[in-house]
Amino acid sequence: MPDLSHIVKAYDVRGVVPDQWDEALAELFGAAFATVTEATAIVVGHDMRPSSPGLSRAFARGAASRGADVTEIGLCSTDELYFASGKLGLPGAMFTASHNPAQYNGIKMCRAGAAPVGQDTGLAQIRELAERWSETGLPATDAAPGTVTQRDILHDYADYLRELVDLGSIRPLKVAVDAGNGMGGHTVPTVFEGLPVELVPMYFELDGTFPNHEANPLDPKNLVDLQHKVRETGADIGLAFDGDADRCFVIDERGEPVSPSAITALVAARELAKHPGSTVIHNLITSWSVPEVVKESGGTAVRTRVGHSFIKQEMADTGAIFGGEHSAHYYFRDFWNADTGMLAALHVLAALGGQDAPLSHLVAAYDRYAASGEINSTVDDQAGRTAAVRAAYEGRDGVTIDTLDGLTVTTTDWWFNLRPSNTEPLLRLNVEARDARTVARLKDEVLAIVRG
């Protein structure tokens, strides 16, 4: 049988089109998805990549062939698909490769209520069926074919978000938004309509070839245009969305990036003000400031592995109101525990517009430590290099080591995490300390071992 492990990742399907997968395989994935979820109806959406409409339609055909009625919502952001899954109570599939280059595409899948589908929650079975059917063809079924209908839910999505965050009484704000030619160009105008906001749009034209820059705000070079625009126009804030607009990065009025950990802490404080004593989830790479602010705000902080399936599961298990990751994924109980950068952005606008200080002053209380950001190293032996780093620090006075996700080494003054990529031959290093000099020293020490 064909081996689809090269495109079926830990949390989703992702690969080059048509070299690694195509519409024929998308149809098999659709049939397998309907079979594994036992769905009688599903919802499907797609981003602006050239291959997305065809792949999405093929998936819908496959699901309908197993008897599932398909609601196609067309062009949408990933969190808009999660909204549809939650609001309609249907399993869903989003066709996107997020921030990957134009030749890539993928599928993010969820069960009804936006519950995640990962390797342990159905994705492995979907892969197995798609592999088998690639060889044998789809088996016959007694089920009558499902229907395929279209529905526009963009305004419902926008209305729902604005109900969750009151922006009616904020001071007027000038907001620069870089959509990166991704789905933010589709969602932002509708979500921001009628708000006391002067919108400065950048790259709102939907173009899956990404003619201006990669739609990956995690890479600093992709923020440069927005930083310049904020300074040039005197904007109060800049927002940068990734390709499928489920992540949002924030730039302050000086044109400086705001740490996603600081945004996590700010939103956590706001959510805990509404829901005192609740739980907030953070992954192990977010700043020490996050659990500190959660505790100061009367909440309980729970540390978890990196990755949306782990965060969503922990939120479901603990009843958490909010969760944040260092990669600018933000999860809300009020949004079916799913991640939505747009809702996080509205929280930041509400906090900024609810007082008179500039954004840099507002977030200073939540940005307490020096950090390296994520540094990637290409290595041949992820496990061996990680073991070498562990050996170098294990047994030192005051050092604690844990392996919840990769290797985390901690003292009272600093910590670092070294974690293998799930999809590439990379080790990812994050360092945080009480001062920048210590960050620089640790970064050099660890990278010397990793890169050998």
Query: What's the number of extended β-strand segments?
Result: 23
How many discrete domains? 4
Number of helices: 14
CATH superfamily of the largest domain: Alpha-D-Glucose-1,6-Bisphosphate, subunit A, domain 3
Structural class: alpha/beta
* Unreliable residue runs: none
Shape: globular
Remind me, CATH topology of the largest domain? Alpha-D-Glucose-1,6-Bisphosphate, Chain A, domain 3
* Spatial gap, N to C terminus: 39 Å
Radius of gyration over alpha carbons?
22 Å
CATH architecture of the largest domain: 3-Layer(aba) Sandwich
Overall residue-averaged pLDDT value: 96
CATH class label of the largest domain: Alpha Beta
In which range does the helix fraction lie?
25-40%
Strand residue percentage? 15-25%
Largest sheet: 7 strands, mixed
Protein described:
Helices cover 37% and strands 23% of the residues. It is of the alpha/beta class and 452 residues long. It has four domains: 13-152, Alpha-D-Glucose-1,6-Bisphosphate, Chain A, domain 3, CATH 3.40.120.10; 156-255, Alpha-D-Glucose-1,6-Bisphosphate, Chain A, domain 3 (3-Layer(aba) Sandwich), CATH 3.40.120; 260-364, Alpha-D-Glucose-1,6-Bisphosphate, Chain A, domain 3; 370-451, TATA-Binding Protein (2-Layer Sandwich), CATH 3.30.310.50. The strands form four sheets. Strands 1, 2, 3, 4, 5, 6 and 7 form a seven-stranded mixed β-sheet that branches. Strands 18, 19, 20, 21, 22 and 23 form a six-stranded antiparallel β-sheet that branches. The chain starts with 12 loop residues before the first strand and ends with a helix. The mean pLDDT is 96. InterPro entries: A-D-PHexomutase_a/b/a-I, A-D-PHexomutase_a/b/a-I/II/III, A-D-PHexomutase_a/b/a-II, A-D-PHexomutase_a/b/a-III, A-D-PHexomutase_C, A-D-PHexomutase_C_sf, Alpha-D-phosphohexomutase_SF. Residues 374-447 form the Alpha-D-phosphohexomutase C-terminal domain. Belongs to the phosphohexose mutase family.
